[in-house]
Amino acid sequence: MKTMTRFAIAALALAPIAGFAQTLAPSQDAYYVTGNASNFGSATAVTVGSLGSIGLVQFDLTQLPAGLTAAQIQKATLTLFLDHVNAPGTINIDTVSASTPWGELTVTGNSGISVGSAVATAVPVATANTFISMDATSAVQGWITTPGSNNGFMIQANTGANVQFDSKENTTTSHPATLTIVLVSVGPTGATGSNGTSGINGATGPTGVAGPTGVSGPTGVAGPTGVSGPTGVAGPTGVSGPTGVAGPTGVSGPTGVAGPTGVSGPTGVAGPTGAVGSTGATGSNGATGPTGVGLTGATGPTGVGLTGATGPTGSAGTAGSQGAQGATGAGGPAQVIVGYFFYQPGNPTSTFFPINSSGDTTIDGDFTDYGHMQVVMPIACTIDIVRVFQPSVSTGSTVTVTLFKAAGGTGTPTTTGITLNVANNANVQSTGNSVTVAAGDTLAYQLSGGNTGNSSGIVSLTTALHCK
Asked: CA-CA distance, 8 to 353, in Å (whole number)?
């Protein structure tokens, strides 16, 4: 099923008032020709470059959450739809000076509109029927800090460029300028579930029986005192015993019996003590003569005992069973899905906002009569609040808004029982609802009322669904 409306999804899973992107439609747009006293505020295109014409577009930031600060503006993107290219080139986007406010139906080339700060410079405009986007974060942050300075954006052509952008009055391609604002998410994370209990370790297998210790070799005979005797020859190393078979899993086996200690070799005969040297004569100063040093006899060779063979190693115990898995942590807060679209009672198949990039305005599938603001639910939840806002720029009488659902995105849509009647320049909110939806279900609004039968009547609506 084709989705005829573009949405900004507000993910409130980690934030009390932030953590979502909201797309705003212009509150007013126009263009003027310097020195010309005519007003072009109701034109279906914003012309830039022709006879020195300059475009204007402004957005109402009071639709954002109350108490918002500039630090919570993570990203702001201005998007324009290039309807016609009479002569390609480049354009500059600036803010309008805080000292020169303007009105859509009163601004002219004699109004003295002046430029503010730069937003984007030398933006290429060469291909018709394309979207052009630019970063406007700094400008929006400044307007949030000083709301009275928000006089919108100014669009000027550089030498030779002559182009036209869709205005909000355009009902043919219906791509007015948009301002998409991403807010910073700062909410708490859901609690983590507890860890499961560790499994019991298996018992250690028994230790193999130790092999017997080899017999110690005899101790070499001590050499005579004085010259060191030669070192005794090392005895041979005992043969290593075979590796024991792995013991059974579970209980530890008994410790192997120690092999007998090898017989100590005999102690060598002590060598004779060297003769004591004579005492030197006493000097005139009474110095002591040198003392004679006796020679120490060499140490006899040390006998080396044989090492017993190593007993077999017990087998490893079985692994303990796996502990139970811990409980899943609680989920985060709810989500909000926000949408903005146009509704034209006299010509409903050509006024959805915005249509897809190919220009297809056909409503497909089972939503032929319910095609306004179609959306496939990304999560399963319970809808408890529905809100609809009809701003003051709309025309017409009260519009009736009914929410429908198609399970799994197929079949005939059925009403959810939620209906709101929204007058011009009014906010209507329905609370206490309990509509269960699954991931993949398709929701859509059915609209009636307004300027019924009047193909030029346009109603713009902003909607929000709260899912807990």
From this structure: 13
Domain containing 445 — which CATH number? 2.60.120
Cβ proximity of 301 and 194 under 8 Å:
no
Task: Say whether both 16 and 160 belong to one domain.
Answer: no
DSSP letter (8 states) at residue 64: S
Q: Hey, what amino acid is at 77?
A: T
Q: Which amino acid is at 189?
A: T
**Is residue 346 scored above 70 in pLDDT?**
no
Tens of pLDDT, residue by residue over 387-407, are 877 775 455 567 777 887 888
Tokens of 124: 């290429």
Residues 4 and 109 in one domain: no
Taking alpha carbons only, the member of 75, 321, 306 closest to residue 211 is 306
Residue with tokens 């007998």: 260
Q: What is the mean pLDDT of residues 292-304?
A: 44
DSSP secondary structure, 235-274, as one string:
PPPPPPPPPPPPPPSSSPPPPPPPPPPPPPPPPPPPPPPP
258: nearest Cα among 210, 214, 309: 210
> Rounded to an integer, what distance in angstroms lies between the CA atom of residue 170 and that of residue 366?
28
Q: Which amino acid is at 434?
A: S
- Which residues have CB under 8 Å from 229's CB, separation 6+? 220, 221, 222, 223, 268, 297, 298, 299, 300, 301
DSSP state of 40: -
Q: What is the DSSP letter of 20?
A: B
Q: Looking at the 3D structure of the chain, how many domains does it have?
A: 2
Pair 366, 406: CB distance under 8 Å? yes
Token pair in block for residue 391: 């701003």
The model's pTM: 0.41
3-state percent breakdown (helix, strand, coil) of the chain, nearest 5:
5, 30, 60
Kind plus residue range of the DSSP H or E element containing 462: strand 459-467
Higher pLDDT, 418 or 269: 418
Q: Taking the chain, what is the end-to-end CA distance rounded to the nearest angstrom?
A: 26
